[in-house]
UniProtKB/TrEMBL annotation, chains A, B, C, D:
Name of the protein described by the UniProt record: L-threonine aldolase
Pfam family, one: Beta_elim_lyase
Keyword set includes Lyase: yes
Every Aromatic amino acid beta-eliminating lyase/threonine aldolase domain range: 7-297
Signal peptide start-end: none
Required cofactor(s): pyridoxal 5'-phosphate
Function noted in UniProt: Catalyzes the cleavage of L-allo-threonine and L-threonine to glycine and acetaldehyde.
GO molecular function: threonine aldolase activity
Coiled-coil residue spans: none
UniProt entry tagged with the keyword Lyase: yes
A biological process from GO: L-threonine catabolic process
Record keywords, A-Z: Lyase, Pyridoxal phosphate
Amino acid sequence: MTDTSQQFASDNYSGICPEAWEAMAQANQGHQRAYGDDEWTARAADHFRHLFDTDCDVFFAFNGTAANSLALSALCQSYHSVICSETAHVETDECGAPEFFSNGSKLLTAHTEQGKLTPASIREIALKRKDIHYPKPRVVTLTQATEVGTVYRPEEIQAISQTCDELGLNLHMDGARFSNACAFLGCSPAELTWKAGVDVLCFGGTKNGMAVGEAILFFNRDLAEDFDYRCKQAGQLASKMRYLSAPWVGLLQNDAWMRYATHANRCAQLLADLVKDVPGVSLMFPVEANGVFLQMSEPALAALTARGWRFYTFIGAGGARFMCSWDTEEARVRELAAAIREVMAG
Amino acid sequence: MTDTSQQFASDNYSGICPEAWEAMAQANQGHQRAYGDDEWTARAADHFRHLFDTDCDVFFAFNGTAANSLALSALCQSYHSVICSETAHVETDECGAPEFFSNGSKLLTAHTEQGKLTPASIREIALKRKDIHYPKPRVVTLTQATEVGTVYRPEEIQAISQTCDELGLNLHMDGARFSNACAFLGCSPAELTWKAGVDVLCFGGTKNGMAVGEAILFFNRDLAEDFDYRCKQAGQLASKMRYLSAPWVGLLQNDAWMRYATHANRCAQLLADLVKDVPGVSLMFPVEANGVFLQMSEPALAALTARGWRFYTFIGAGGARFMCSWDTEEARVRELAAAIREVMAG
Amino acid sequence: MTDTSQQFASDNYSGICPEAWEAMAQANQGHQRAYGDDEWTARAADHFRHLFDTDCDVFFAFNGTAANSLALSALCQSYHSVICSETAHVETDECGAPEFFSNGSKLLTAHTEQGKLTPASIREIALKRKDIHYPKPRVVTLTQATEVGTVYRPEEIQAISQTCDELGLNLHMDGARFSNACAFLGCSPAELTWKAGVDVLCFGGTKNGMAVGEAILFFNRDLAEDFDYRCKQAGQLASKMRYLSAPWVGLLQNDAWMRYATHANRCAQLLADLVKDVPGVSLMFPVEANGVFLQMSEPALAALTARGWRFYTFIGAGGARFMCSWDTEEARVRELAAAIREVMAG
Amino acid sequence: MTDTSQQFASDNYSGICPEAWEAMAQANQGHQRAYGDDEWTARAADHFRHLFDTDCDVFFAFNGTAANSLALSALCQSYHSVICSETAHVETDECGAPEFFSNGSKLLTAHTEQGKLTPASIREIALKRKDIHYPKPRVVTLTQATEVGTVYRPEEIQAISQTCDELGLNLHMDGARFSNACAFLGCSPAELTWKAGVDVLCFGGTKNGMAVGEAILFFNRDLAEDFDYRCKQAGQLASKMRYLSAPWVGLLQNDAWMRYATHANRCAQLLADLVKDVPGVSLMFPVEANGVFLQMSEPALAALTARGWRFYTFIGAGGARFMCSWDTEEARVRELAAAIREVMAG
């Protein structure tokens, strides 16, 4: 069932974009060396180095669960802890994957402002305990864009990075929607990562037009020592790697990644604009990426569902999340907005 | 580089077969629910249940490393051990993945005959130690077809299964090349698995025309309890699951899986036939699946390499492995055979 | 330094009680079989079975960190979760040990009333999420007596156990101060454990007069399958086991465990009685076991410290914990009370 | 049962020696700070630094299983491997503990000469595979004295250490019977460890007169970073640490450790001397520490057992291990020797 009313449920309900598909088709010619020793993987890695304007180490994992968990486990030991936001995906939606991959590293949740960690909230958690009976903080993980659709500015990341330096913490970025953050800010990928002090970025492709294959970029290359072995042991080394890397070539080579992210963001903005004056509807967070979070009454949400619209509800009663993706149709955004207006009027 | 001389290096150097590709293309329409809650995944699971003629539990993992390691970790605890052959892929080529996923289960290697475990070799290892200072044997894992290209007969599997029952061991089958075994024996998949006492099969697709997406089939469904959580936590739950499952629909629905395996086996047989009378060349193992293992002199192997042919050498001096795959060209087999004849004559 | 002013800092600052010491001395005769195959270990296990009036499985671990972590890991898999109180020792003071031993099981903290979980608070956490992206709740762990010095009544445990049954959860009890709970309630150990539905108890000896050697009692013996292997693999099988088990014989055989717990409780009660009318001092929790938690001003606490008294502060500003142990001297309790009265007057 | 005929079964069947007992008795005065922050632990650590003539980092664990496993896990990551001898205790008798603590590091067994690794055997294993599909060798572990009662000379350790340096491997020593090696060689502890290139030593006390409490000495102090957290998380931090450390003070302060090891060695030598001319009995290994390994016929061993003597048999048919300990009585050695002579004559 390819129900268009599901278009706003999640950005991972979408398919593969034409550029990624075409690259896969090209890659699907004849035999290629396995395990990343192929030309497509080399090309994709080079595209990343060019895009980020630095000689980073590049790896590929099958999905975001693994990419983030492997990266975090490379940044700390089992008796260390990872500071994340209360709403961080690694904390709320990974079924304990970071703890599994790291063999027990504890996640410590810090308060956020509009879904974003701050130097103060990090400091509070990092300094709360200094004794051996509590896992020693060693990593901070940010999600860019955040799980509530907000975006860290370069100076916010820099401030956090500075705090990390003071406290001896590594800085990891979960970039499942990194493209959307770049599109919103108009910043270069470098400005949002290594130039701001990020050690490792997990750059998500799945939510922006790929099937599988998140990229893990180590700007701090010391931390990447033997990371290829880590990937292999953890079941994240693809034999036919070209099918993970070629789509990245497709996405990166002509800026498709940016066009799609911009499109998704614009759709989200459109939706927000269209409903902002609807009585009884309020935006829960500023719309900075591709998600719109609306506070609406339970009956209104039920009515929307009854009309066939699909979306996730979360953060207490009355909230609904609408996600736009690379292939969201503007006409459907307008239909959804109209439906919201109608159920609120009803 | 799509060098045809690499065709015999590994069966995972090959690409995606047309049937799998076409199914992915069809699956790539519009939005679909994520995490396996889509129609393609349901269809693929049903195809497996039909093919195996039983109501088994079906899961998908990204690759064989993970599929086998997750299955094994579901069959034992960390203080248990897994009996495998000395040449088992899980022992020799997974960088400790089974130990990682299980948090420490030890692999105990047993002697083999032509790459195959026997009831006697299993019994020897299982009964060697009965004290608490040695991890308690809990699982036997077979590879079908084996790493040296031989195939377990149904009665061999039954005999092993009986031994497992006597000793309280679960029986796992690594079926990276299960298709090739079926093709060789002309047996039904059921006869080679649950009817012979296999608890869990990891059915490989990657080496038979897919990009990613090994299937894990639990015939003993009690052992599958909460296995979906295990996959998720271990980074093996694809969000866009349809791209792992649809190719299986393509492979299974018109017996493409069997045609391709038969083709690969036939190419291997052809190669063996063409070189068997070449002086100085000898077959190391009977050719029952898609691999040919030749004993040749080091200079001959070097000469072959110098002509551009690619292959792996293993098991002491002089051996070379040539793998055929779903797309191996018969003409190339003949060229390779001719080249072998020439270098041996040279 | 054997500073008596440290007497109230922790109940693990105390030494070995005479009965435990004497039993160790007796055990220290000649050679004995290792790894628990000795007569003292058999005797200790029998004492437990007699004391609890049931044929439970008994194991010994070196400390509470390991005893609780091993027990929890036997009750769930890595992708399951453990419901505990916000103040549970396993959550706040074990440096991620439960996560380490279980290879990633997440602890989910529930609200408490006076340090105690309730059926409602457990239900809230257990039912919050039912999807695969969140670790499935599988265990509830209670601390008896709690970390804030309160004690679960048998009917409270029964109610929790009933909730566990409804929700498919195993029930574990961290009994680091189980003796103190028994002493306070005048209940039999059986009433507070298996008769109330507890599956596994970790019975602490260290805080009641032993050096090392917590006991793990499985009332639900199915859950103890191969637990001896688990202990061995995790570094918790003592070769000279008699030195862990003999002290238990000493503690249990003439009810020394109960006398000491009663003494410690009485000292705590005395302290509470002596300071309850001091202006500016208030009890934070009812004194039911061997701990007294006082709300006092920061300057008062500082003054107390300046006089050489040692104690831990926790739960926000102003709180101080004073622990009594098997060897606390009543005269010292009175001195401490007088000192508190003085600093508050000062 | 304190059966003297068990005296030769294992050196961990023995009790606590007077010096260790007396130190425990002294330590058992009043209250002491917990978790190693006490005076006895400080004193013990200083004794080690003095004995080894270097400023090493000293930790204590409850037993050898944990001490060695924790040390190894500090020297490598889960995707690394540990090279050990075929007969290494960590490989054969720890129920997968090293794999558990390290979350999957594989042990690779190398050939030995009289139970000892050599530069050549290490090199063979370390260089066998250099690809990502095999866990990367990162540590060598030696047992000193070995499991078959032989002893590495300083120059042998130096040669191994040199090989380790060349290959990028850390060097760990399992010193469960380190005392016996020192006694045999007449070398200083320093000569056998850091001066010969050992990074970490696990110095065993249990087999030489203690109850619990193996010491872990990091000569390469960089490798000890946050090792205290590792011990805590893994359930190896004793709250009443003084009972682990005080016995070491007792053993070390007047060279009791050396006297006892010398005694045990001498008893073993005596046994070997007394039976060496018995027809049908042959020494399997040179007697260099406190164990004697005799090749005898099965019926002779059975006859010995029938007379009540206890010992372990291993390494194929006909072998028996007799261990001497700190409290072995010379008279009993003579009785055993006479019994052996009799059963062989019988």
